[in-house]
Amino acid sequence: MRESYRKTLTWLAVLLSGALVCAWAFPRAFPLFPANWQVSRVEAERIALEELRLLGTLPDDPYVVAQMDNDAGLEVRLLQASRDGQAALVRDSGMEKRVLLWEVTVYAAGAQPRDWAYQAEIACDGTVLSLLKGFKATDAGGTLSDEEAIARARALLGERGVDLTRLAPPEVRNKDLDKRTDRVVRFADLASPLASRLRSGMEVTFAGDQLAGLGTFAEDVQPEEITQLLQPIGLFSNIAFFSTFLVLPLVAPIFLKRYHEGELGVRRGLQILLLILGLAVVFMVQVSAGATQGTNFGVLSRQQTTWVWGGQMIVLFFLPMAVAALLSWSVGESLCREGWGSKLAAFDALFQRQWKNRTVALASLRGYAAGFAIAGGIFACLVPLARFDAVAPISYQFGPFWNHARWPSLALILFLVIFSLYTTLFGRLFLLPWLVRKLGEVAGATIAALATSFVFFSPVIVLPISIGAPIWILNSLATVLLFLYADLLTTILASFTSAAVLSIFPFVFAADPQLQLHGWIGVLAGAVPLLLTARYLVSDQVFVYRYEDVPPHVRRIAQRERQRVELETARNIQSSILPQLPPQLCGVELAHVYLPATEVGGDFYDVLALEDGRLAVAVGDVAGHGVSSGLVMSMAKSALAVQVTFDPEVAAVFATLNRMVFQSARKRLLATLCYALIDPVRREMRFASAGHLFPYRISRLGKVESLESVAYPLGVREALAIDSHTAQLEPGDIIFLCSDGVVEARKEGSDEHFGFDRLEAVLAKFGGHGASVVRDKVLTALETFTQGAEREDDLTVLVLRMP
Prior knowledge:
By secondary structure, this protein is α+β, with helices and mostly antiparallel strands. The protein folds into 3 domains: 2-30 and 227-550, no CATH class; 41-221, no CATH class; 579-801, Phosphatase 2c, domain 1, CATH 3.60.40. It contains 22 helices and 19 strands. The strands form 3 sheets. It has an 8-stranded antiparallel β-sheet. Strands 9-10-19-18-15-16 form a 6-stranded antiparallel β-sheet. A 5-stranded antiparallel β-sheet has the order 11-12-13-14-17, with helices on one face. The longest helix has 36 residues, at 302-337. The protein is elongated and about 135 Å long. The two termini are 77 Å apart. 44% of the residues are buried.
């Protein structure tokens, strides 16, 4: 209980500290944020429709599109001027009103995107920045001289209260069309304090002799410089936009491999996919109209363009994102279940609506507090940017798309739930454990942080980008460390909350109560799991998996692991049954090796010293793999030892072992055996082989002789007919016995076996050498041929060298 209180108080302190840092640092990090923001999208539409009547009659049943527009280039120039000590001049110029504004466009019913009827720009404080009337290039128009245009422009601006004494003499720009001449009358601002960077003032537009619009203008003196500065942002934004096409080729092959092996399931992944697609549909309904402003699909009307583009975005953007989330969850969950299962507990509990426990409550508090801490840290990093000749435009904090919605807080929440699931499931649940498993914790975490820093949407944009990149990396590293320290739910909530605070915090500082409400909804959305579970923060109740909670594929993994342990134990028992022979028995030099395959096999061998000075030598193989083969092998090995004690003769040994296999083993479970009695004094060997590989005799000069003896394998018939043979041996002769795992060895993906010819060539080359030398040379040749491929069968080699 005391530990629960300590953790709760610690994370509450982190939350409070992060919130205070955000409140202090935000206005200092973004000095051009719209502090006097009084106009919502709905209010901007109302103002625009009222003011546009100055230019003419609005169409019946119009299609009205409102979007939040920005001028990042203008903001960069204003920030540069503020950095150079001209902050007061920037405030007095009023040009910051053009940084963030509402663009309201009016279309006649069925009009195409290019054929808008009216357009207005409304500043965040409600100032009308421009009013325009749309004309087609083919529309005819009357004639209007430059002098008449200037006079009408002066009169119009005077009527709207513009102080013409502050403006320079007018400049007229003409554009000749087939049926009319358009004119723009510009009045530059004489008192503009930023003339070295920006030309600004008022302009009035005429289409032929008709008034086409009026408003403010701002032109960069060196637009190429701004373009070059902003180009990298466009590049990284496109990479982030299409990040799923970088993610899918990485995670999909691993998913297919593990799915084929039965190591993962897709039920929860499919639920996540459907959740993302459902949220995406609601999101696109909210934002498609504003997000498609300026988009043209040939003959489609403006309203049709909205829905077609929305459908395309769901298919080309959100569907791949949902598929990537599905694959990442499936593979990442499988990886984490094997070693980091506790990191999934809170997420599983929340997804199963079992949130009434301390597991979910603490993860919710950690995630929300960590999100504020990350956002506060980023805001704090932006405060001293001027010292490094860098700027952070607030224009880039709005979007993608959600800022165009009628209810921006709802659209933001929808998008961030989708994006947080996608990025965290891939970057933290899948990529991080996968890299840690391959490279270790430090290297894996570092690469995961670096890779995801530049692939997904960045938390803030800092120019030049070389200054902003370290902030991206630190943000990514924070969530990596959070996942390693805590769990998946904590990391998802932290990613969601930090992104929400970084994006919608300007709404919190707005002057309009409705905008403030949207800001607080977005900021507090990450606290919903915490609000549901706060009472359990100091409880003793934790989430415990029940058997029915465990997914089927996890049960399969557990069953497979249990079987693996059982097989490993069986292999160890089998290896312990097989003897560790001394280097010499009765003057005969011995060398042996037993290399088990990945499963329990049936190979066995033994060399027993008899009281009369002879050696009983046996190598056998029970057909197949698995526990049943291993059990029969153990029985055969024990029966051999007992039989040799009573009667070691060849016929008696084969009769006893055949009877045991025939009576005890299941049908079609056979065993092969090569058995020999070696008399070192008389240099004589009596032997027989029941379906087993023939033994080899290798002379000191390298002559290789196969000692043939043919009989049915053990267990085929109730009575086994054995024809034993006798071989005379010479001093230094080598007797080589092995299992079929030697001659049937092959490299991976090949059907070519090591074979008898290669084996006999090795034996011939090293005749006259010691038993251990022959054994080692055969093993080396096998390793070279198979190139280290996994053994498909047990491998047994027994070498004896006569004195």
